[in-house]
Amino acid sequence: MQHFWIVLAVTGALLQAIRTAAQRDLNKHLSTMATTYVRSLFGLPLLIVYLLAVMHGTGEGLPRFGLAWLSYTFVGAMAQVVATALLIRMFTLRSFGVGTILTKVDVVITALLGALFFSERLSAGGLLALLVVMSGVLLMSLERTQRAGGLVPSAGSGLLGSIGALLADKSILVALGCAGSFAISFLTFREAALVIGEGTFLWRGAWTVVLAILMQTVIVGAWLVWREPGLAAKVVPHVRISAFIGATSAVGSICWFTAFALENASYVRAVGQIEVVFTLLVAAFYYRERISVLEYAGIALTVAGVVMFRLLV
Fold first, then answer.
1. For residues 260 and 191, what is the distance between their CA atoms, to the nearest angstrom?
2. pLDDT tens digits for range 187-199
3. How far apart are CA 13 and CA 20, in angstroms?
4. CA-CA distance, 237 to 211, in Å (whole number)?
5. Are the C-beta atoms of residues 278 and 68 closer than 8 Å to each other?
6. In the chain, where the domains are located
7. Which DSSP letter does residue 155 get?
8. Of 193, 252, 218, nearest to 22 (Cα)?
9. Mean pLDDT of the chain
10. I need a labelling partner for 168 at 20 to 30 A (CA). Which of 50, 54, 248, 283 fits?
11. Helix (H), strand (E) at residue 185
12. CA distances (Å), origin 110, targets 3, 60, 125
């Protein structure tokens, strides 16, 4: 049980890669916010069933609806909506593989913000594993972004010119906003799972994920009723893929939130970087995007880093 969070993070990463690919396809027919919303709307019923099963299995009941738990969950829920919308927006600027990989600096932001402002504590072994994972992600990122063109400045442009060129690229700004929003959501969800009260990790994770998705469903749903009043009719022709997105999102969220109830958000997200590997595989086999030798090296390094979490943490 000590390393069960690793299994959860890997499973959550796999489901997130699959769900994100499906959202990219759905985004061709619905707006970015509507595409973001279906994961909550169609996933919430499954999450409620899961919560009831956990309560029945553990014998635990209602939590104390304290201000800290409600606040952390609300901030995390809204940050996740923003992050998901920005991620989908990336797909209009870059390819599926490049768009997802560009946002993977979230693990660095999570580690920094977690150590400075939250209850994250990193061991030497955990930090080493995190660095190995990020090295693998960096290898894959450099290859994909260079191949895409326009993201990596020329060698003669100088440091300031390079930074300026990167910041001038809209996809970079969207990716950084996405990564930062994801980092905030991970850290606040982790804190919510800690402050909810005494209970098993399954119970703490289940209640937090249901409250978060419920908040997203109600708040984003109200916004869409105002901004896109005819949305329901647009979703009906795509109900099957919407249900698929909801199901993969629900099971993936269960994995993530349960892992957050067990371990530091920084470690969970570092292991979750294996999503990049799954993303490349989806890009290769579904979208027919080529995988290079350097990307295979990055995949190997990322997997090695995940194994190090099992051995060193």
1. 9
2. 999 999 999 998 9
3. 10
4. 29
5. no
6. 4-312
7. G
8. 252
9. 85
10. 283
11. helix 170-195
12. 20, 31, 17
